[in-house]
């Protein structure tokens, strides 16, 4: 098959699988953010495959169809893919067990509240995002202490295995796909989701920090605001008010919470603004 791949670094591990099965990746589509797409750039360079960054226009998609593409393969791509009704196959890789957990960024929600829907699903691209027929899926529950970055790394390693299973028996699996039931949708994350509330328990804050670690969490205390990529908690009895700074020096920031304290190494912090 001639394959057009739409995605970022997150599932770039799937690219080699197509080559291993004798399929030709004829075009790569990714976003403009180099920090999230450098693996895609490197693969395109090494395999001499054209690379398009940004949202493709109708003209670009028409040119792609003119190359005789057989398969659109989407994996954590930022934009809705058009012209899917004009190719023999159009497949998306989603990071939950569909029909549960549709939506653009489900992993932080999974790590905090819904580990039972964690996994990978290969499904047919459809007009309504993440609602196409399910072709193949695998449950991958997160470990109790797993961070967003580590869980995403595990999905990166597991995705090629699932794709390999599909390509080993493509016709049978594709044509035995099953429609989805009602399911659930997880909205995109926002700044409020990533903001720590000092009235929360140490357990809740620790899960929140882990669930957003590579993206960072926002915290505000005594008129200052930071972005943190790591922090650890300790249940501890004290006389401080929740949100009060216990210690702030060149090494660490320690803040009191309802049932203990949270420690942020300064190398894991960026001071954002003066909130006063």
Quote the average pLDDT: 96
Tell me the series of helices and strands, N- to C-terminal. Answer: EHEHEHEEHEEHHHEEEEEEE
- For CATH, the homologous superfamily of the largest domain is named as Formyl transferase, N-terminal domain
The total strand number stands at 14
Number of helices: 7
Looking at the structure, the CATH topology of the largest domain is: Rossmann fold
Number of domains: 2
**Percentage of β-strand residues:** 25-35%
Q: What sort of overall outline do the alpha carbons produce when their principal axes are compared?
A: elongated
- Return the CATH class of the largest domain: Alpha Beta
Helix-strand makeup class: alpha/beta
Largest sheet: 7 strands, mixed
- Helicity level, as a percent range? 25-40%
Rounded to an integer in angstroms, the radius of gyration calculated over CA atoms is 22 Å
* Oligomeric state of the chains present here: single chain
CATH architecture of the largest domain: 3-Layer(aba) Sandwich
Strand order of the largest sheet: 3-2-1-4-5-6-7
Q: Poorly predicted ranges (pLDDT <50, ≥5 residues)?
A: none
Distance between the termini: 59 Å
